[in-house]
Every structure is written in C-alpha cells, then in structure tokens.
Amino acid sequence: MTTSNAIEETPDIPIQVFERFLKALEDTDVSAELVARLRKTLLEEQTFTESVLKVAVLGEEPLP
Q1: Global pTM?
Q2: Buried b / exposed e across 35-47, counting CB within 10 Å, b at 16+?
Q3: Considering only CA atoms, which of 43, 44, 55 is closest in space to residue 19?
C-alpha cells in the first residue's frame, strides 16, 4: 500500500518550523548558548512545558 510510504515521507512540520526559527536566531546577535539550549529542547528532547522552555531561554534552573 502507498499509505505507509506517504506517512513515512510526510515532513515533520513543527520540526521544520523550529529549524527555521533556530536558523533565524543564529543569524542575529542571540548567543550561541541560547540557540544550543533551544535546539536541544525543541528538536532533541521535544519538550514543550513552560518550565522547560523558561530554562532553555533563561539558561537557569528555576527556583523551587
């Protein structure tokens, strides 16, 4: 069946959007460390909770 091939070939739209976003950040004066943290969070770990994203952006563990 071609359904399975179509699913395998379908691009992951959120990943593409995040990759473009991170590339745009790299082209600005944003620190490489921030981009690396966001890349790890958005693309590798794919974790999107508020607390995890705050750590990725701010670079600090939140206080309890």
Answers
A1: 0.73
A2: bebbbebbeeeee
A3: 43
